[in-house]
Amino acid sequence: MSRTARPFADLVPSAPSGTARRILVAGGAGFVGSHLCERLLAAGHLVVCLDNLQTGRLGNVAHLMRDPHFSVLRHDIIEPVVLDGPLDEVWNLACAASPPQYQRDPIHTFRTCIDGTRHLLDLARSREARFLFASTSEVYGDPEQSPQAESYRGAVNVWGPRACYDEGKRAAETLCYEYGRLGADVRVARIFNTYGPRMSPEDGRVVSNFVVQALTGEDITIYGDGSQTRSFCYVDDLVDGLLRLMRSEVRDPVNLGNPVEFTVRDLARLVLDMTGSTSRVVHRALPQDDPRQRRPDISRAMQALGWEPKVPLAAGLSQTIAHFRSELFRPAAAAVQAS
Fold first, then answer.
1. How far apart are CA 65 and CA 49, in angstroms?
2. Model pTM?
3. How buried is residue 322: exposed, middle or buried, by Cβ count under 10 Å (0-12/13-18/19+)?
4. How many whole angstroms separate alpha carbon 106 and alpha carbon 168?
5. Bridge partners of 186?
6. Where are the domains positioned within the chain?
7. How many CB atoms lie within 10 A of CB 121?
8. Residue of 102, 165, 179, 234 with catalytic role
9. CATH of domain 8-338
């Protein structure tokens, strides 16, 4: 099912001449990236999905593969990116985002943030393409103020097990800023906890962990006492914010997330109620540097982009639970095909 990307000149536009953009989405086979590719194609653009498939899955974009405006290029952005044809936009969503995944190979994670972002910035600058970097709320570390506004400088442990990702993203933001000073057209989104369909059962973040554990009857694992908070944003809302940011003239970092705060303990109860699961709740030691509180100040996004999330947690969880039911209990042959 994988194939080499065709030159943009060979992709057939579905929008009137002059309105179809030629777009590269790095990390396009990932959870968020696949939803973004889908929205861009629906708008009539020409899209190349670039992914090394370390955490992305071809199954996430299988329904797009027959679209003549879409192609897939398997490539790791720690190496320079070569792509034929003109280019209007470069989206960098290419990095493992959950702690269990990015800690498996921390040096590769750090290089993805630094070398990968530099390679994509070089590509975008050479084509005069607009560039969007998917940064993260992790740049705020274990915050000492709440909510976190973009002006907050964070409290990150540069020696900790999460630093390969946290500091990698912070340094990548610096690269974006410096390239911007040289004339690159750059946007930076600081993404807070996102959930929804196409998350992998092995994702390792709290929503996927709780839903998978509840559906399979395993113990619901809460790290610490569960009083730590998160702000959960449904993927459709996030993609809408990303699209608005890319189309805007906002050059400063923008928080994209849901300002409604939930404790991890309350999330576990909600998942148990919505799945009807009889799983037990068990507690484990809190991992090092796990943030105690995470809540975005989205004033900038509201004022500059006219954006705020619309999907309540229960509604988004309903769609997410349905996705995982299908993912976990479908026939084995289908699971192999989508892996």
1. 10
2. 0.93
3. exposed
4. 10
5. 131
6. 8-338
7. 24
8. 165
9. 3.40.50.720
Residue 51's beta-bridge partner residues? 74
- The structure tokens 């065709």 sit at 6
- Report the C-alpha gap between 265 and 282 in whole angstroms: 11
Q: Can 165 be counted among the known catalytic residues?
A: yes
Longest dimension (CA), the chain: 58
Per-residue pLDDT tens, the chain, 339 aa: give them.
334 555 565 665 555 456 899 999 999 999 999 999 999 999 999 999 999 999 999 999 999 999 999 999 999 999 999 998 899 999 999 999 988 999 999 999 999 999 999 999 999 999 999 999 999 999 999 999 999 999 999 998 999 999 999 999 999 999 999 999 999 999 999 999 999 999 999 999 999 999 999 999 999 999 999 999 999 999 999 999 999 999 999 999 999 999 999 999 999 999 999 999 999 999 999 888 888 889 999 999 999 999 999 999 999 999 999 999 999 997 653 444 454
